[in-house]
Amino acid sequence: MNLPNLIDLFPGLGTLLASSPQIIVARLGLIALGILLVYLGYKGVLEALLMVPMGLGMAAVNAAVLFLPDGRQGTLFVDPLASTPAELTDALQIYFLQPVYTFTFSNGLIACLVFMGIGVLLDIQYLLARPLESMFLALCAELGTILTFPIAIAVGLSPNDAASIAMVGGADGPMVLFTSLILSRNLFVPITIVAYLYLGLTYGGYPYLIKLLIPKHLRSKPVPPPAHPIKISAAQKLIFVVGACVVLCFIFPVAAPLFVSLFLGVAIRESELGHFTQLIQETVLYGATLFLGFLLGVLCEANTILNPEIFMLLLLGILALLLSGLGGIAGGYILYFLKRGRYNPTIGIAGVSCVPTTVKVAQKAVAECAPTNIIIPEALGANISGVITSATLAGIYVTILPLLTK
Amino acid sequence: MSVFDAVKMAFLIYGLAIVISLLVAGLIKAMSLAISRRRQPSTEMAAAPPIALADTFQAAPEVIAAITAAVHATLGAKVQIQRVRRSRVQPHWVAEGRMEIMLSHRLAKK
Protein backbone atom coordinates (compact mmCIF):
# COMPACT_ATOMS: atom_id res chain seq x y z
CA MET A 1 0.00 0.00 0.00
CA ASN A 2 1.39 3.39 -0.95
CA LEU A 3 1.64 5.99 1.78
CA PRO A 4 -0.32 9.14 0.95
CA ASN A 5 1.70 12.08 -0.22
CA LEU A 6 2.36 14.66 2.54
CA ILE A 7 0.81 17.32 0.33
CA ASP A 8 -2.42 15.29 0.01
CA LEU A 9 -2.57 14.87 3.77
CA PHE A 10 -2.31 18.62 4.38
CA PRO A 11 -4.20 20.33 1.55
CA GLY A 12 -3.63 23.80 2.99
CA LEU A 13 0.11 23.31 2.59
CA GLY A 14 -0.39 21.49 -0.71
CA THR A 15 -2.31 24.33 -2.33
CA LEU A 16 0.33 26.77 -1.11
CA LEU A 17 3.14 24.81 -2.73
CA ALA A 18 1.14 24.30 -5.93
CA SER A 19 0.43 28.04 -6.30
CA SER A 20 2.29 30.69 -8.24
CA PRO A 21 4.89 32.71 -6.28
CA GLN A 22 2.55 35.70 -6.41
CA ILE A 23 -0.26 33.77 -4.69
CA ILE A 24 2.14 32.25 -2.14
CA VAL A 25 3.37 35.69 -1.12
CA ALA A 26 -0.19 37.07 -1.06
CA ARG A 27 -1.52 34.19 1.09
CA LEU A 28 1.32 34.34 3.59
CA GLY A 29 1.14 38.14 3.65
CA LEU A 30 -2.61 38.09 4.29
CA ILE A 31 -2.24 35.50 7.07
CA ALA A 32 0.38 37.74 8.72
CA LEU A 33 -1.82 40.82 8.21
CA GLY A 34 -4.81 39.01 9.72
CA ILE A 35 -2.82 38.06 12.83
CA LEU A 36 -1.52 41.64 13.07
CA LEU A 37 -5.07 43.04 12.87
CA VAL A 38 -6.23 40.74 15.69
CA TYR A 39 -3.28 41.87 17.79
CA LEU A 40 -3.82 45.58 17.07
CA GLY A 41 -7.55 45.21 17.76
CA TYR A 42 -6.84 43.47 21.05
CA LYS A 43 -4.35 46.17 22.04
CA GLY A 44 -6.94 48.88 21.33
CA VAL A 45 -4.86 50.52 18.57
CA LEU A 46 -7.52 49.66 15.95
CA GLU A 47 -11.30 49.24 16.32
CA ALA A 48 -11.46 45.89 18.15
CA LEU A 49 -15.08 45.15 17.26
CA LEU A 50 -14.22 45.00 13.56
CA MET A 51 -10.56 44.03 13.56
CA VAL A 52 -10.66 40.91 15.76
CA PRO A 53 -13.24 38.99 13.65
CA MET A 54 -11.89 40.45 10.40
CA GLY A 55 -8.26 39.58 11.18
CA LEU A 56 -9.10 36.06 12.32
CA GLY A 57 -11.27 35.49 9.24
CA MET A 58 -8.49 36.79 6.98
CA ALA A 59 -5.83 34.58 8.55
CA ALA A 60 -8.06 31.48 8.61
CA VAL A 61 -9.36 31.73 5.04
CA ASN A 62 -5.88 32.08 3.56
CA ALA A 63 -4.65 29.10 5.54
CA ALA A 64 -7.65 26.91 4.69
CA VAL A 65 -7.32 26.74 0.90
CA LEU A 66 -7.88 23.25 -0.52
CA PHE A 67 -8.34 21.50 -3.86
CA LEU A 68 -12.02 21.38 -4.79
CA PRO A 69 -13.44 18.31 -6.63
CA ASP A 70 -13.19 20.11 -9.98
CA GLY A 71 -9.46 20.69 -9.43
CA ARG A 72 -9.72 24.39 -8.63
CA GLN A 73 -8.34 25.88 -5.44
CA GLY A 74 -10.89 27.27 -3.02
CA THR A 75 -12.19 27.25 0.53
CA LEU A 76 -15.34 26.06 2.30
CA PHE A 77 -16.09 29.54 3.66
CA VAL A 78 -17.89 31.48 0.92
CA ASP A 79 -18.04 31.86 -2.87
CA PRO A 80 -18.53 35.58 -3.50
CA LEU A 81 -18.53 35.10 -7.28
CA ALA A 82 -21.50 32.69 -7.43
CA SER A 83 -24.21 34.54 -9.35
CA THR A 84 -26.52 32.26 -11.37
CA PRO A 85 -29.38 30.54 -9.53
CA ALA A 86 -27.78 27.10 -10.04
CA GLU A 87 -24.41 28.30 -8.71
CA LEU A 88 -26.07 29.97 -5.75
CA THR A 89 -28.10 26.87 -4.89
CA ASP A 90 -24.92 24.77 -4.90
CA ALA A 91 -22.96 27.40 -2.97
CA LEU A 92 -25.62 27.67 -0.26
CA GLN A 93 -25.25 23.96 0.41
CA ILE A 94 -21.46 23.90 0.41
CA TYR A 95 -20.06 27.10 1.90
CA PHE A 96 -20.89 27.70 5.54
CA LEU A 97 -20.96 31.51 5.34
CA GLN A 98 -22.77 31.61 1.98
CA PRO A 99 -26.26 32.14 3.52
CA VAL A 100 -25.00 35.16 5.48
CA TYR A 101 -23.20 36.55 2.41
CA THR A 102 -26.04 35.98 -0.08
CA PHE A 103 -28.94 37.04 2.11
CA THR A 104 -27.39 39.93 4.04
CA PHE A 105 -24.15 41.11 2.47
CA SER A 106 -24.62 41.15 -1.29
CA ASN A 107 -28.03 42.87 -1.07
CA GLY A 108 -26.91 45.51 1.42
CA LEU A 109 -29.12 44.27 4.28
CA ILE A 110 -26.20 44.07 6.69
CA ALA A 111 -25.37 47.73 5.99
CA CYS A 112 -28.98 48.66 6.71
CA LEU A 113 -28.91 46.69 9.99
CA VAL A 114 -25.73 48.49 11.06
CA PHE A 115 -27.37 51.79 10.16
CA MET A 116 -30.45 50.89 12.21
CA GLY A 117 -28.16 50.22 15.17
CA ILE A 118 -26.36 53.53 14.63
CA GLY A 119 -29.76 55.25 14.52
CA VAL A 120 -30.66 53.84 17.93
CA LEU A 121 -27.38 55.21 19.34
CA LEU A 122 -27.83 58.67 17.84
CA ASP A 123 -29.25 61.53 19.84
CA ILE A 124 -30.23 64.13 17.28
CA GLN A 125 -30.47 66.72 20.07
CA TYR A 126 -26.82 67.56 19.36
CA LEU A 127 -27.52 68.09 15.67
CA LEU A 128 -30.60 70.17 16.44
CA ALA A 129 -28.58 72.38 18.83
CA ARG A 130 -26.04 73.61 16.23
CA PRO A 131 -27.27 72.51 12.80
CA LEU A 132 -25.38 75.01 10.62
CA GLU A 133 -22.02 74.52 12.36
CA SER A 134 -22.41 70.75 12.34
CA MET A 135 -23.40 70.61 8.70
CA PHE A 136 -20.54 72.96 7.73
CA LEU A 137 -18.00 70.65 9.40
CA ALA A 138 -19.56 67.60 7.77
CA LEU A 139 -19.38 69.21 4.32
CA CYS A 140 -15.72 70.11 4.86
CA ALA A 141 -15.03 66.54 5.94
CA GLU A 142 -16.40 65.25 2.62
CA LEU A 143 -13.38 66.69 0.81
CA GLY A 144 -11.98 63.22 0.14
CA THR A 145 -15.30 61.99 -1.27
CA ILE A 146 -15.24 64.81 -3.81
CA LEU A 147 -11.55 65.15 -4.72
CA THR A 148 -10.86 61.41 -5.01
CA PHE A 149 -13.43 61.09 -7.80
CA PRO A 150 -11.47 63.03 -10.49
CA ILE A 151 -8.18 61.59 -9.19
CA ALA A 152 -9.55 58.05 -9.65
CA ILE A 153 -10.71 58.96 -13.16
CA ALA A 154 -7.21 60.32 -13.89
CA VAL A 155 -5.61 57.00 -12.93
CA GLY A 156 -7.92 55.11 -15.27
CA LEU A 157 -10.91 53.95 -13.24
CA SER A 158 -14.40 54.08 -14.77
CA PRO A 159 -16.75 56.79 -13.37
CA ASN A 160 -18.77 54.20 -11.44
CA ASP A 161 -15.66 52.59 -9.89
CA ALA A 162 -14.23 56.05 -9.18
CA ALA A 163 -17.40 57.10 -7.34
CA SER A 164 -17.42 53.88 -5.32
CA ILE A 165 -13.83 54.27 -4.13
CA ALA A 166 -14.34 58.02 -3.58
CA MET A 167 -17.11 57.18 -1.09
CA VAL A 168 -14.41 55.75 1.20
CA GLY A 169 -13.71 59.44 1.96
CA GLY A 170 -17.06 59.60 3.75
CA ALA A 171 -15.66 56.93 6.10
CA ASP A 172 -19.10 55.43 6.31
CA GLY A 173 -18.83 51.66 5.79
CA PRO A 174 -22.47 50.91 4.98
CA MET A 175 -22.52 53.79 2.50
CA VAL A 176 -19.44 52.49 0.64
CA LEU A 177 -20.92 49.00 0.61
CA PHE A 178 -24.18 50.35 -0.75
CA THR A 179 -22.62 52.59 -3.43
CA SER A 180 -20.24 49.94 -4.74
CA LEU A 181 -23.06 47.38 -4.75
CA ILE A 182 -25.10 49.57 -7.06
CA LEU A 183 -22.42 51.24 -9.16
CA SER A 184 -19.52 48.84 -9.21
CA ARG A 185 -20.47 45.20 -8.76
CA ASN A 186 -17.22 43.96 -10.33
CA LEU A 187 -15.13 45.74 -7.69
CA PHE A 188 -17.67 45.40 -4.88
CA VAL A 189 -15.60 42.93 -2.84
CA PRO A 190 -12.19 44.72 -3.02
CA ILE A 191 -13.70 48.18 -2.51
CA THR A 192 -15.66 47.18 0.59
CA ILE A 193 -12.64 45.36 2.01
CA VAL A 194 -10.45 48.41 1.43
CA ALA A 195 -13.12 50.64 2.97
CA TYR A 196 -13.61 48.63 6.15
CA LEU A 197 -9.90 48.00 6.55
CA TYR A 198 -9.31 51.73 6.48
CA LEU A 199 -12.27 52.50 8.73
CA GLY A 200 -10.50 50.38 11.33
CA LEU A 201 -7.33 52.29 10.66
CA THR A 202 -8.94 55.69 11.31
CA TYR A 203 -8.78 54.72 14.96
CA GLY A 204 -5.02 54.45 14.71
CA GLY A 205 -4.25 57.06 12.04
CA TYR A 206 -6.43 60.10 12.75
CA PRO A 207 -4.98 60.83 16.23
CA TYR A 208 -1.59 61.36 14.57
CA LEU A 209 -3.17 63.67 11.98
CA ILE A 210 -4.77 65.70 14.80
CA LYS A 211 -1.51 65.92 16.75
CA LEU A 212 0.35 66.92 13.60
CA LEU A 213 -2.02 69.73 12.61
CA ILE A 214 -3.50 71.03 15.87
CA PRO A 215 -1.14 72.32 18.56
CA LYS A 216 -1.72 71.28 22.17
CA HIS A 217 -3.03 74.65 23.35
CA LEU A 218 -5.76 74.59 20.68
CA ARG A 219 -6.66 70.96 21.39
CA SER A 220 -7.31 71.87 25.02
CA LYS A 221 -9.69 74.75 24.15
CA PRO A 222 -13.05 74.40 25.91
CA VAL A 223 -16.20 74.96 23.88
CA PRO A 224 -18.57 77.41 25.58
CA PRO A 225 -22.14 76.12 25.97
CA PRO A 226 -24.80 77.65 23.69
CA ALA A 227 -26.07 81.04 24.90
CA HIS A 228 -29.71 79.95 24.57
CA PRO A 229 -29.89 76.17 25.01
CA ILE A 230 -32.97 74.68 23.39
CA LYS A 231 -34.66 71.75 25.03
CA ILE A 232 -36.37 69.61 22.43
CA SER A 233 -38.88 66.97 23.44
CA ALA A 234 -38.88 63.41 22.13
CA ALA A 235 -42.13 64.12 20.25
CA GLN A 236 -40.55 67.07 18.44
CA LYS A 237 -37.50 64.98 17.57
CA LEU A 238 -39.80 62.28 16.23
CA ILE A 239 -41.61 64.80 14.03
CA PHE A 240 -38.25 65.94 12.67
CA VAL A 241 -37.09 62.35 12.05
CA VAL A 242 -40.25 61.40 10.15
CA GLY A 243 -40.13 64.62 8.10
CA ALA A 244 -36.42 64.32 7.28
CA CYS A 245 -36.79 60.63 6.37
CA VAL A 246 -39.69 61.25 3.99
CA VAL A 247 -37.98 64.25 2.35
CA LEU A 248 -34.63 62.46 1.86
CA CYS A 249 -36.34 59.31 0.53
CA PHE A 250 -38.34 61.52 -1.79
CA ILE A 251 -35.18 63.19 -3.13
CA PHE A 252 -33.01 60.03 -3.30
CA PRO A 253 -35.14 56.89 -3.72
CA VAL A 254 -32.01 54.85 -4.50
CA ALA A 255 -30.58 55.51 -1.04
CA ALA A 256 -33.97 55.07 0.65
CA PRO A 257 -33.10 51.70 2.28
CA LEU A 258 -30.22 53.36 4.14
CA PHE A 259 -32.19 56.49 5.08
CA VAL A 260 -35.18 54.54 6.34
CA SER A 261 -32.93 52.18 8.35
CA LEU A 262 -31.10 55.07 10.01
CA PHE A 263 -34.25 57.05 10.79
CA LEU A 264 -36.11 53.93 11.93
CA GLY A 265 -33.42 53.47 14.57
CA VAL A 266 -33.76 57.11 15.67
CA ALA A 267 -37.58 56.89 15.63
CA ILE A 268 -37.50 53.76 17.81
CA ARG A 269 -35.19 55.52 20.26
CA GLU A 270 -37.34 58.66 20.43
CA SER A 271 -40.57 56.64 20.71
CA GLU A 272 -39.05 54.99 23.79
CA LEU A 273 -39.77 51.49 22.50
CA GLY A 274 -37.52 49.87 25.07
CA HIS A 275 -37.73 46.30 23.80
CA PHE A 276 -36.94 47.31 20.21
CA THR A 277 -34.13 49.60 21.37
CA GLN A 278 -32.58 46.78 23.36
CA LEU A 279 -33.00 44.32 20.48
CA ILE A 280 -31.40 46.61 17.90
CA GLN A 281 -28.71 48.13 20.13
CA GLU A 282 -27.51 44.88 21.64
CA THR A 283 -28.41 42.08 19.27
CA VAL A 284 -28.85 43.49 15.77
CA LEU A 285 -25.98 46.03 15.83
CA TYR A 286 -23.43 43.77 17.46
CA GLY A 287 -24.58 40.71 15.49
CA ALA A 288 -24.34 42.62 12.20
CA THR A 289 -20.94 44.08 13.15
CA LEU A 290 -19.60 40.63 14.04
CA PHE A 291 -20.70 39.02 10.78
CA LEU A 292 -19.67 42.07 8.77
CA GLY A 293 -16.14 41.98 10.18
CA PHE A 294 -15.85 38.21 9.88
CA LEU A 295 -17.19 38.14 6.31
CA LEU A 296 -14.89 40.96 5.24
CA GLY A 297 -11.95 39.00 6.62
CA VAL A 298 -13.08 35.84 4.86
CA LEU A 299 -13.44 37.73 1.58
CA CYS A 300 -9.75 38.66 1.79
CA GLU A 301 -8.79 35.33 0.24
CA ALA A 302 -5.75 35.81 -1.99
CA ASN A 303 -7.36 34.29 -5.11
CA THR A 304 -10.45 36.52 -4.73
CA ILE A 305 -8.86 39.88 -4.10
CA LEU A 306 -5.69 39.52 -6.17
CA ASN A 307 -6.90 42.00 -8.72
CA PRO A 308 -4.50 44.32 -10.59
CA GLU A 309 -6.67 47.25 -9.53
CA ILE A 310 -6.52 46.43 -5.82
CA PHE A 311 -3.23 48.28 -5.27
CA MET A 312 -4.71 51.38 -6.88
CA LEU A 313 -7.83 51.03 -4.70
CA LEU A 314 -5.65 50.82 -1.60
CA LEU A 315 -3.90 54.06 -2.55
CA LEU A 316 -7.11 55.87 -3.51
CA GLY A 317 -8.87 54.71 -0.34
CA ILE A 318 -6.19 56.04 1.97
CA LEU A 319 -6.00 59.25 -0.05
CA ALA A 320 -9.77 59.74 0.28
CA LEU A 321 -9.67 59.27 4.05
CA LEU A 322 -6.64 61.53 4.42
CA LEU A 323 -8.28 64.31 2.38
CA SER A 324 -11.50 64.01 4.40
CA GLY A 325 -9.56 64.19 7.67
CA LEU A 326 -7.70 67.26 6.41
CA GLY A 327 -10.99 68.81 5.25
CA GLY A 328 -12.58 68.21 8.65
CA ILE A 329 -9.67 69.78 10.52
CA ALA A 330 -9.68 72.70 8.07
CA GLY A 331 -13.40 73.15 8.81
CA GLY A 332 -12.61 73.13 12.53
CA TYR A 333 -9.98 75.84 12.01
CA ILE A 334 -12.39 77.96 9.94
CA LEU A 335 -14.92 77.83 12.79
CA TYR A 336 -12.14 78.57 15.29
CA PHE A 337 -11.25 81.77 13.42
CA LEU A 338 -14.87 82.74 12.73
CA LYS A 339 -15.64 82.41 16.44
CA ARG A 340 -12.49 84.34 17.34
CA GLY A 341 -10.80 81.51 19.17
CA ARG A 342 -13.84 80.29 21.11
CA TYR A 343 -13.91 76.89 19.43
CA ASN A 344 -11.87 73.70 19.52
CA PRO A 345 -10.71 72.84 15.97
CA THR A 346 -10.30 69.16 16.95
CA ILE A 347 -14.09 68.81 16.66
CA GLY A 348 -13.66 69.14 12.88
CA ILE A 349 -12.37 65.58 12.57
CA ALA A 350 -15.73 64.32 13.87
CA GLY A 351 -17.31 65.62 10.65
CA VAL A 352 -15.87 62.46 9.07
CA SER A 353 -18.93 60.29 9.52
CA CYS A 354 -17.40 57.13 10.95
CA VAL A 355 -19.96 56.93 13.79
CA PRO A 356 -18.91 57.06 16.59
CA THR A 357 -15.19 56.37 16.00
CA THR A 358 -14.21 59.89 14.98
CA VAL A 359 -16.09 61.32 17.99
CA LYS A 360 -14.08 59.06 20.26
CA VAL A 361 -10.86 59.96 18.45
CA ALA A 362 -11.61 63.70 18.87
CA GLN A 363 -12.55 63.33 22.54
CA LYS A 364 -9.48 61.20 23.23
CA ALA A 365 -7.19 63.77 21.57
CA VAL A 366 -8.76 66.58 23.62
CA ALA A 367 -8.77 64.59 26.89
CA GLU A 368 -5.03 63.94 26.54
CA CYS A 369 -4.42 67.71 26.80
CA ALA A 370 -7.34 68.70 29.05
CA PRO A 371 -8.85 65.70 30.90
CA THR A 372 -11.94 67.62 32.06
CA ASN A 373 -12.74 69.08 28.66
CA ILE A 374 -15.79 67.40 27.07
CA ILE A 375 -16.40 68.01 23.37
CA ILE A 376 -18.60 64.97 22.75
CA PRO A 377 -21.90 66.89 22.26
CA GLU A 378 -20.43 69.18 19.58
CA ALA A 379 -18.51 66.31 17.98
CA LEU A 380 -21.65 64.14 17.86
CA GLY A 381 -23.55 66.92 16.10
CA ALA A 382 -20.87 67.05 13.40
CA ASN A 383 -20.77 63.27 13.26
CA ILE A 384 -24.54 62.92 12.71
CA SER A 385 -24.39 65.63 10.07
CA GLY A 386 -21.59 63.60 8.48
CA VAL A 387 -23.95 60.63 8.19
CA ILE A 388 -26.50 62.88 6.46
CA THR A 389 -23.95 64.39 4.05
CA SER A 390 -22.47 60.95 3.26
CA ALA A 391 -25.92 59.56 2.57
CA THR A 392 -26.70 62.62 0.45
CA LEU A 393 -23.49 62.19 -1.56
CA ALA A 394 -24.11 58.46 -1.98
CA GLY A 395 -27.63 59.29 -3.17
CA ILE A 396 -26.29 61.88 -5.63
CA TYR A 397 -23.61 59.53 -6.98
CA VAL A 398 -25.94 56.58 -7.52
CA THR A 399 -28.72 58.75 -8.93
CA ILE A 400 -26.82 61.20 -11.12
CA LEU A 401 -23.83 59.20 -12.33
CA PRO A 402 -25.79 56.69 -14.43
CA LEU A 403 -27.71 59.60 -16.01
CA LEU A 404 -24.65 61.72 -16.79
CA THR A 405 -22.46 58.89 -18.08
CA LYS A 406 -25.06 57.44 -20.50
CA MET B 1 -14.75 60.60 -19.29
CA SER B 2 -11.87 63.09 -19.31
CA VAL B 3 -10.28 64.37 -16.09
CA PHE B 4 -11.63 67.84 -16.83
CA ASP B 5 -15.17 66.45 -17.12
CA ALA B 6 -14.62 64.53 -13.88
CA VAL B 7 -13.53 67.71 -12.08
CA LYS B 8 -16.63 69.51 -13.39
CA MET B 9 -18.83 66.63 -12.27
CA ALA B 10 -17.17 66.56 -8.84
CA PHE B 11 -17.94 70.27 -8.39
CA LEU B 12 -21.51 69.74 -9.57
CA ILE B 13 -21.98 66.88 -7.09
CA TYR B 14 -20.38 68.86 -4.24
CA GLY B 15 -22.54 71.88 -5.08
CA LEU B 16 -25.68 69.75 -4.98
CA ALA B 17 -24.59 68.19 -1.67
CA ILE B 18 -23.93 71.66 -0.20
CA VAL B 19 -27.34 72.96 -1.29
CA ILE B 20 -29.22 69.92 0.05
CA SER B 21 -27.25 69.80 3.33
CA LEU B 22 -27.71 73.51 3.97
CA LEU B 23 -31.43 73.20 3.24
CA VAL B 24 -31.63 70.40 5.81
CA ALA B 25 -29.59 72.50 8.28
CA GLY B 26 -31.84 75.52 7.62
CA LEU B 27 -34.91 73.37 8.20
CA ILE B 28 -33.48 72.12 11.49
CA LYS B 29 -32.55 75.65 12.56
CA ALA B 30 -36.02 76.96 11.74
CA MET B 31 -37.58 74.13 13.71
CA SER B 32 -35.29 74.77 16.70
CA LEU B 33 -36.12 78.49 16.67
CA ALA B 34 -39.84 77.78 16.44
CA ILE B 35 -39.59 75.40 19.39
CA SER B 36 -37.56 77.83 21.50
CA ARG B 37 -40.09 80.65 20.85
CA ARG B 38 -42.98 78.40 21.85
CA ARG B 39 -41.21 77.26 25.01
CA GLN B 40 -39.86 80.57 26.31
CA PRO B 41 -42.82 81.72 28.49
CA SER B 42 -43.38 78.35 30.11
CA THR B 43 -39.64 77.94 30.81
CA GLU B 44 -39.51 81.26 32.63
CA MET B 45 -42.60 80.41 34.64
CA ALA B 46 -41.21 77.02 35.56
CA ALA B 47 -37.82 78.35 36.59
CA ALA B 48 -38.49 78.69 40.33
CA PRO B 49 -39.62 75.23 41.55
CA PRO B 50 -36.34 73.29 41.01
CA ILE B 51 -34.43 75.80 43.22
CA ALA B 52 -36.97 75.36 45.98
CA LEU B 53 -36.80 71.59 45.48
CA ALA B 54 -33.01 71.67 45.89
CA ASP B 55 -33.30 73.38 49.24
CA THR B 56 -36.14 71.27 50.64
CA PHE B 57 -34.89 67.85 49.54
CA GLN B 58 -34.61 65.42 52.46
CA ALA B 59 -32.65 62.26 51.77
CA ALA B 60 -33.76 59.11 53.55
CA PRO B 61 -31.14 57.44 55.82
CA GLU B 62 -30.88 54.41 53.49
CA VAL B 63 -30.18 56.74 50.55
CA ILE B 64 -27.40 58.41 52.52
CA ALA B 65 -26.04 54.96 53.43
CA ALA B 66 -26.05 53.95 49.76
CA ILE B 67 -24.30 57.18 48.75
CA THR B 68 -21.70 56.71 51.50
CA ALA B 69 -21.05 53.14 50.37
CA ALA B 70 -20.71 54.25 46.73
CA VAL B 71 -18.29 57.06 47.61
CA HIS B 72 -16.27 54.70 49.83
CA ALA B 73 -16.14 52.07 47.08
CA THR B 74 -15.00 54.68 44.56
CA LEU B 75 -12.50 56.64 46.64
CA GLY B 76 -11.44 53.83 48.95
CA ALA B 77 -11.29 56.20 51.91
CA LYS B 78 -13.30 56.70 55.09
CA VAL B 79 -15.93 59.28 54.20
CA GLN B 80 -18.70 61.15 55.93
CA ILE B 81 -21.61 62.58 53.96
CA GLN B 82 -22.40 66.01 55.35
CA ARG B 83 -25.00 67.31 52.92
CA VAL B 84 -27.18 65.80 50.19
CA ARG B 85 -29.01 67.94 47.70
CA ARG B 86 -30.54 67.52 44.27
CA SER B 87 -28.47 68.67 41.33
CA ARG B 88 -30.03 71.60 39.52
CA VAL B 89 -28.14 70.64 36.37
CA GLN B 90 -29.94 67.39 35.62
CA PRO B 91 -28.54 66.88 32.09
CA HIS B 92 -25.26 65.83 33.79
CA TRP B 93 -26.81 62.40 34.29
CA VAL B 94 -27.64 62.21 30.60
CA ALA B 95 -24.17 63.46 29.68
CA GLU B 96 -22.58 60.83 31.93
CA GLY B 97 -24.59 58.06 30.27
CA ARG B 98 -23.69 59.33 26.83
CA MET B 99 -20.02 59.53 27.77
CA GLU B 100 -20.16 55.94 28.95
CA ILE B 101 -21.59 54.78 25.62
CA MET B 102 -19.20 56.83 23.54
CA LEU B 103 -16.11 55.77 25.45
CA SER B 104 -17.24 52.18 25.86
CA HIS B 105 -14.93 50.59 23.30
CA ARG B 106 -11.44 50.27 24.61
CA LEU B 107 -9.44 53.35 23.74
CA ALA B 108 -6.58 52.85 26.12
CA LYS B 109 -3.68 50.79 24.86
CA LYS B 110 -3.00 47.65 26.85
* Strand order in the sheet with the most strands of chain A: 1-2
Q: How many H/I helical runs of chain A?
A: 21
Assembly annotation: heterodimer
Low-confidence stretches of chain A: none
H/E element string of chain B?
A: HHHH
How many distinct folded domains of chain B?
A: 2
Runs of chain B in which pLDDT lies below 50 for 5 or more consecutive residues are 42-54
Mean pLDDT of chain B: 70
Number of strands of chain A: 2
- Strand residues, percent of chain A: under 5%
**Coarse morphology of chain A:** globular
Radius of gyration of chain A: 22 Å
Relative strand content of chain B: under 5%
Assign an overall shape of chain B. Answer: elongated
Question: What would you say this structure looks like, in words?
Answer:
The complex is a heterodimer of chains A (406) and B (110). Chain A folds into 2 domains: 1-75; 107-404, no CATH class. In chain A, 72% of the residues lie in helices and 1% in strands. Chain A has helices at residues 6-9, 11-17, 21-43, 48-63, 85-94, 98-105, 109-121, 125-129, 131-140, 143-154, 159-166, 173-183, 188-213, 216-219, 234-251, 256-270, 274-299, 302-305, 310-338, 357-369, 376-404, and strands spanning 66-67, 73-74. In chain A, strands 1-2 form a two-stranded antiparallel ribbon. In chain A, α13 (188-213) packs parallel to α20. The radius of gyration of chain A is 22 Å and the shape is globular. The mean pLDDT of chain A is 83. With 110 residues, chain B is mainly alpha-helical. Chain B has 2 domains: 3-47; 53-104, no CATH class. Chain B is built from 4 helices and no strands. Chain B has helices spanning 3-45, 48-56, 61-75, 91-102. The two termini of chain B are 49 Å apart. Classes of the chains: A mainly alpha (406), B mainly alpha (110). Chains A and B meet through α8, α9, α10, α15 and α20 of A and α1 and α4 of B.
